[in-house]
Design a protein that fits this description.
heterodimer; A: 269 residues; mainly alpha; two-stranded antiparallel ribbon; 75% helix; B: 255 residues; alpha/beta; Rossmann fold; 6-stranded mixed beta sheet; 8 helices; binds adenosine-5'-triphosphate; binds magnesium ion
Chain lengths: 269, 255
């Protein structure tokens, strides 16, 4: 934006910046990697329980080329994507409706509060009986876990709209629909975005658990199978993938949040 | 030209309840405003100026007495009545241009007309080049000018202005005063301006209404029968200023 200059104080010179990426965040991972390497090469832990970084890299290559790791990965990601989209779309729609009307809120309130307190994973056994061990049961369960944080934050966000802004809408004779679209929903966007970011991470963590509990594919399935077969190197590969993808999802959501909330000025540390 | 109407404020009283106590924000307020008149309201902080504007705009109908527009009680807001709030009240998630255009959301203008009148009004308040800036990127004075553009863009017949020039530097202030006079003359809008600047009130208006607090009430009205453009340094101007200030109880301090 050309309008204002960036008034944030220049950070004290710390680590060199690599094409705009601050290297501070890479320091700890590098240390951990070095520690891992040391632990395995000095055999502090037997290789069967902790494979070396090189062995892990090799295992990932094997899994990718011979065991179709990417297909399992796609299976997991597709469940997460579907669950996230269904869960959050339903949550925003119902959250707006409940935020607008006390009656809608009262209608859903008791039911939702009860369902919400039964963890998604506790629903899985029953849903699997209905839908089988395939993807649909997991999509349903994870969508449920995505739904509630987004629903509650949407409701709260709508209720937090400022009176001043609603008065302005009244002065400009906005219709109810225009009020919702131009004032109430935008007021709720900051809290909706926070819950979407949180839910996206949650969905990814849950798919691992759900796949471990039922089904025959996906990263979660692989990790538990690797444990059973004592393929520790494969197990670690799965863990690294889970961590990296979780990180990527969170970063992606953060960037999306920053873009959507670019009208908002906040504390940037 | 949209409907200007005759505004008749009859014996209006408004009380707020603050922590169980009754606050008389307005009491026994009578004011008659003819179509196309330019009225200024001056008075100390907390004397009910903003409250009175809220009642006229139709945001608050819980008061005693009557506020009549052409004989009909005001029941709600209308595009015929515009207001520039004391706080700029731009929506933070809309750009300056979108904020101004929001006032035309329900106007009868076509898309192209809307665009050009929005552009004209942004230019009028000297904010060209900032069309796509977010409110948080504007200075206080710029935000206030944007709010003025939004107030004017729908060409209301009655325009209420709550200290619209308060945060502006002296030069911009003078320029926008001239613009207000020009728009008022060109479009025949009824203007009701709240200001803390007595010079501004006398320079712009046909009548200066002086209010005082506890309870909020109108103390007196002073007609300004001077030809425009007015000479702020003229003897008559100064005489009127002395009268207004003495009514405000500040003359002793000012002299
Ligand atoms: N929503 C409200 N609830 C309770 N009291 C209020 C409310 N709005 C205004 N008041 C009270 O009404 C009185 C008049 O307020 P108002 O905002 O009209 O003053 P004002 O003349 O516009 O002052 P200023 O020049 O500082 O803007 C004040 O005593 C204020 O405390
Ligand atoms: Mg005020």
């Amino acid at each position: 934006m050309t309008v204002t200059t960036d008034l944030r104080m220049r950070p004290a010179p710390r680590l060199p910046r690599l094409r705009g990426v601050n290297l501070t965040g890479l320091l700890l991972p590098a240390l951990l990697l070095a520690l891992w390497q040391t632990a395995t090469s000095l055999e502090w832990v037997p290789p069967v329980f902790l494979p070396s970084p090189a062995a892990t890299a090799e295992a990932s290559w094997t899994m990718l080329t011979r065991q179709n790791l990417h297909l399992d990965f796609l299976a997991s990601i597709s469940i997460v994507a579907q669950a996230f989209v269904y869960g959050s779309v339903a949550a925003v729609a119902l959250g707006v409706a409940a935020g607008l009307s006390k009656r809608v809120e009262q209608f859903f309130g008791p039911t939702f509060d009860t369902i919400r307190h039964i963890p998604g994973i506790a629903w899985l056994p029953l849903i699997v009986l209905w839908l089988g061990i395939g993807a649909p049961a997991k999509v349903v369960v994870i969508a449920k876990s995505v739904f509630f944080p987004v629903f509650l934050n949407t409701l709260e966000g709508i209720r937090n709209a400022e009176k001043r802004h609603i008065e302005l809408a009244e002065v400009l004779t906005l219709t109810r629909w225009q009020l919702i679209r131009r004032v109430l929903v935008p007021s709720a966007i900051p809290s909706i975005m926070v819950s979407l970011r949180y839910s996206a991470g949650l969905a990814w963590a849950l798919v691992v658990v759900a796949e471990g509990l039922s089904g025959l594919e996906g990263i979660g399935f692989l990790i538990f199978r690797a444990q059973g077969l004592l393929l520790t190197d494969q197990l670690v590969v799965c863990m690294v993938i889970i961590g990296a993808v979780g990180f990527a999802i969170d970063r992606g959501m953060y960037l999306l949040q920053r873009h959507i909330l670019r009208w908002k000025q906040g504390f940037e540390g | 030209m949209s409907n200007r109407g005759t505004l008749d404020i009859r014996n209006v009283a408004k009380t707020y309840e603050v922590e169980g106590r009754q606050v008389n924000a307005l009491s026994g307020v009578n004011l008659h405003v003819a179509p196309g008149e330019f009225i200024s309201i001056v008075g100390p902080s907390g004397c009910g100026k903003s409250t009175l504007l809220r009642l006229i705009i139709g945001l608050d109908t819980g008061y005693q007495g009557d506020i009549l527009l052409d004989g009909h009680r005001i029941t709600g807001t209308s595009l015929d009545r515009g207001i520039v709030f004391q706080d700029h009240r731009l929506l933070p998630w809309l750009t300056l241009e979108q904020n101004v255009a929001l006032a035309l959301e329900n106007s009868r203008l076509s898309g192209a007309e809307r665009k050009s009148t929005v552009t004209d009004h942004i230019e009028l308040v000297g904010l060209s080049g900032f069309e796509s800036a977010w409110p948080h990127q504007l200075s206080g004075g710029m935000a206030q000018r944007a709010a003025i553009a939004r107030g004017l863009v729908g060409r209301p017949g009655i325009l209420l202005l709550d200290e619209p020039l308060g945060a502006l530097d002296a030069l911009t202030r003078l320029r926008l005063q001239e613009e207000l006079v020009r728009i008022w003359k060109a479009e025949g809008v009824t203007m009701i301006l709240v200001t803390h600047d007595v010079d501004e009130a006398i320079y712009l208006s046909d009548r200066v209404v002086v209010m005082n607090s506890t309870p909020g009430r109108i103390v007196d009205e002073i007609a300004v029968d001077l030809p425009r453009p007015r000479d702020r340094a003229g003897a008559e101007f100064s005489a009127i200023k002395r009268r207004v200030l003495s009514l405000m109880g500040e003359y002793a301090e000012a002299a």
